[in-house]
């Protein structure tokens, strides 16, 4: 993966005996095999099935990244955002609300945007908005919870994205994120130097042996990077769904007032509620007394900051951006719950 200053230089610090993400994934699966043998195949099958569904996004993203590096066109994409950051934030938030990606599937596209040199503010807007809503989810949410809730979630998706984008923009302008945002794509391990900012792209890169080598190297490196972290993310997702039922987690967030909304956001953060399971579950909980605001906070937090998504985010960006992502996700979920409670 190219070292843009935004992408982490290394994954999480692991013990010396466990240096590989693949080893961590294997250890988790081995523990399932030892402690709960009947659950071994369902866990593996779930992870493989999820990877299969995500594969088209991974393939598209790694080809895009490799093409950007081989042609030298990542600087062209970066220049396209210069001077139009506010417009980029709005477009990223709106497009994120329409894109059919969950919090894990969006990771390959975030990696591509980072390599392309897009501003961190626009990346964060897309990152926060994308897992929350898409056309199929809108219909499923409307069927289970009604159109007011579905529309409220769509507005929350764009609103949280815009909030995140403009908060990052303000922090960047204040100098707090100066060393991680807006840096040009540099050199990865596959080349000795990145393209110059003034360089013109070479679109027929296959005619140049060095550029073909760059393409192949970037394809393999980024494909392996995304695959290993998403594999771990989906194994964790399977275990969360199996051993921590969403019903048990959500049952503790009933009650009235502001406190249930805050609790719902923090409980929903590590929980995994995909866009198809969450609406029917929350419909049942609202019938049992869960407030609309608490349900909105729980759903927003679960979509943005689930443990599988956090595992991938941790590997992709430097720690300050990871912490900022979580803070924006939680605060956005709480604000969404409070606002929806007031207008519902």
What does this structure look like?
This protein has 344 residues and is mainly α. Helices cover 69% and strands 0% of the residues. It is built from 15 helices and no strands.
Shape: globular
Give the termini distance in whole angstroms: 45 Å
Instruction: Report the order of strands and helices.
Output: HHHHHHHHHHHHHHH
Low-pLDDT ranges: 9-18, 181-198
Structural class: mainly alpha
Q: Report the β-strand fraction as a percent range.
A: under 5%
Summarize the main sheet: none
Based on CA atoms alone, the radius of gyration comes out at: 20 Å
Question: Average pLDDT value?
Answer: 76
Number of strands: 0
- Determine the fraction of residues in helical runs and give it as a percent range: 55-70%
Distinct helical segment count: 15
Observed structural traits:
69% helix, globular
Blueprint (SSEs and pairs):
Blueprint lengths: L20 H15 L4 H32 L2 H8 L3 H14 L8 H10 L3 H10 L5 H11 L1 H27 L35 H35 L2 H5 L7 H11 L9 H10 L4 H13 L2 H10 L2 H25 L1
Helix pairs in contact: 1-9, 2-5, 2-9, 4-6, 4-8, 5-6, 6-8, 7-8, 7-12, 8-15, 9-14, 11-13, 11-15, 13-15
Describe the structure in brief:
With 344 residues, the chain is mostly helical.
């Amino acid at each position: 993966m190219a070292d843009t200053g935004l992408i982490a230089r290394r994954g999480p610090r692991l013990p010396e005996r466990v240096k590989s993400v693949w080893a961590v994934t294997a250890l988790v699966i081995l523990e399932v095999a030892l402690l709960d043998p009947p659950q071994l195949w369902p866990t593996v099958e779930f992870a493989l099935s999820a990877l299969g569904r995500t594969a088209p996004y991974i393939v598209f993203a790694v080809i895009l990244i490799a093409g950007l590096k081989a042609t030298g066109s990542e600087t062209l994409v970066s220049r396209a955002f210069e001077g139009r950051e506010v417009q980029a934030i709005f477009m990223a938030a709106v497009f994120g609300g329409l894109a059919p990606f969950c919090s894990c599937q969006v990771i390959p596209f975030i990696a591509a945007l980072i390599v392309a040199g897009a501003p961190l503010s626009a990346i964060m807007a897309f990152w926060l908005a994308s897992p929350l809503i898409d056309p199929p989810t809108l219909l499923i949410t409307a069927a289970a919870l009604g159109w007011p809730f579905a529309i409220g979630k769509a507005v929350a998706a764009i609103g949280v994205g815009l909030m995140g984008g403009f908060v990052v923009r303000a922090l960047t302008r204040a100098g707090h994120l100066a060393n991680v945002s807006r840096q040009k794509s540099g050199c990865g391990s596959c080349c000795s130097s990145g393209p110059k900012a003034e360089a013109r792209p070479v679109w027929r890169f296959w005619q140049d042996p060095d550029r073909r080598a760059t393409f192949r190297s970037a394809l393999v490196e980024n494909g392996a990077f995304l695959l290993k972290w998403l594999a771990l993310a989906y194994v964790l997702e399977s275990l969360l769904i199996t051993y921590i039922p969403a019903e048990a987690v959500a049952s503790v967030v009933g009650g009235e007032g502001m406190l249930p909304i805050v609790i719902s956001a923090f409980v929903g953060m590590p929980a995994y509620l995909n866009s198809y399971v969450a609406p029917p579950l929350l419909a049942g909980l609202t019938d049992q007394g869960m407030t609309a605001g608490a349900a909105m906070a729980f759903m927003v937090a679960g979509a943005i900051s689930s443990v599988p998504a956090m595992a991938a985010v941790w590997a992709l960006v430097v720690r300050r951006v990871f912490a900022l992502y979580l803070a924006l996700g939680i605060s956005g979920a709480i604000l969404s719950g409070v606002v929806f409670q007031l207008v519902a």
